[in-house]
Amino acid sequence: MRATIFSMPCWSIVLIPLALTVSRTNRFSLGSQNRRLWMFGLKRRLVRRWEWDTLWPNIGFTPVTWQCADMGLRSQGQVPKCILYWLSFSIRGRTMQSLLPVTLLAGLAEDTRATVAHNLLRAAPAGTVLIEYDVTGMSDGTVIRIARTSAGVIDRELIEMAHPCVSCALRASLLPVLTSIASTEKYVAALVSIPAAGDPQALAEEIAADAEDELRVDAVITVLDGATFVEDMSGEDLLLDRDIPTAAEDGRAVAEVLARHVEYANALIVDGPQAAALARAINPQALIHGTRSAAALLGQKLHDPDTAETWVEPGSICAPLNDEGDVRTLVWQADRPFHPQRLFDALEEIVAGSARGKGTIWLASQPSARLGWDSFGASIAIGVLGPWLADLPAERWSEVGQAHQARSLFEWHPEHGDRASYLSITGAGLDTGELRELLDGCLLRRDEWISDLADPFAPYLEGSSAA
To answer: Under DSSP, is residue 284 helix (H, G, I), strand (E, B) or coil?
Structure first.
């Protein structure tokens, strides 16, 4: 339930002046029992809402909320002259029910994602809005944004861009229309169908950072084409090879975009046992539904930004509990560093036949750099994540990812601390035994001297000790 208009009670004479003297930029916390928020208000006009949640001691009182809004300060330091739009007194608990719930739909297959989006709209409660983008004209610098309900189109806008890219189109146009929808208080939820090359993680983080007082992301759902997913994840095609609308300089592989979509999702919609098994291995935490049962995800609060960030932490691994069908995952680790030349020579063989690989590696020629491993099909990226915990004072450990910190506490080596290599590599039909032997053979032998090593990785690792 959103705001309800009441006649002005006598105690509002005390509350309103206090509310209206709060600075427009004041966002400090009042503690665990009180908080102040800014929100977009009625009729798409910027209205400041002061909100004080009072959670009384547990002596039988009911939690209550006082709310009021005004049209803004004339100048800082003066008591504002305003028109009071509404004052409500509503009984509620701790959760802000007035935020507009948003579900993000990602997926590389435009037709499959569009079909699922429209099916979800038909199954959703009345007052749900679906926002879509027609990016077929992106090369000419134009994108069309369409907002519709089950009754028909409610908004259509041509967006002209100086730099044609999906991220620019979303960043410039999506948040304003979502906050406008939220401010009308007429709609109950929003579905956003993200174009194929879009990044659901960046969009979810932008909503949390810039519109937390109007919107909340309830779920990130990725729609997969079960007929092509397994092959796409092990291939080497680029987005531009498939004529998928994106920026001209976008050099991402199809497998990378798919992997990012799958890993950040709270739920996956996919048909086909092998495709579902591979998706589950890449993201074991996600719920998996077929297209016919996708409507069961409506109304579920699945997304937590902090948890999602941990799932995709650079340098972390993915360890599914069980292999499924012919989909296999090798979880490998070693407390000795890699021989740089042997690893470099074996890269192509390591990723052959795999769909997704991730983790942290320790290179003998770069003892001070913790390196991250990311492979997507036949594509591989190795980069510097930062220093090892062993080289940092305790007060700087927060600079390192939480997953690596937790792992290091359990596996700290008395001689070299958290230095270690650990990888997870997943693929359909993957020979994990052969892959394990290959990785073991790339390690530095005990009779080899670090000072004698050539480092073919150094020219590619910006910020490394040998670059």
So the answer is: coil
C-alpha 140 chain-centroid distance = 29
pLDDT, position 34: 29
Classify each residue of 62-97 as buried b or exposed e, where b means 16 or more C-beta atoms within 10 Å of its C-beta: eeebbbbbbbebeeeeeebebeebbbbeeeeeeebe
Produce one character per residue of 29-40: b if its CB has 16 or more CB atoms within 10 Å, e if not: eeeeeeebbbbb
Contact by Cβ (8 Å): 244, 252: no
Mean pLDDT by 10 residues, the chain (467 residues): 35 34 30 28 28 31 36 36 32 54 95 95 95 88 92 91 76 87 90 94 92 92 96 92 88 95 97 96 95 94 89 89 91 95 96 95 93 94 93 90 88 93 96 96 88 86 56
Give the per-residue pLDDT at 116: 96
> CA-to-CA distance for 424 and 408, rounded, in angstroms?
17
Q: Positive or negative, the Cα torsion across 135, 136, 141, 144?
A: negative
pLDDT score for 463: 54
Q: Are 279 and 286 in contact (CB under 8 A)?
A: yes
The owner of tokens 């997926």 is 107
Nearest Cα to Cα of residue 128 among 186, 89, 69: 186
Q: 422 and 359 in contact (C-beta within 8 Å)?
A: yes
Helix, strand or coil for residue 383? strand
Alpha-carbon distances, residue 326 vs 232, 234, 355, 432 (angstroms): 17, 14, 13, 11
Token couple for 190: 């929003």
In angstroms, the CA 435 to CA 48 distance is 59
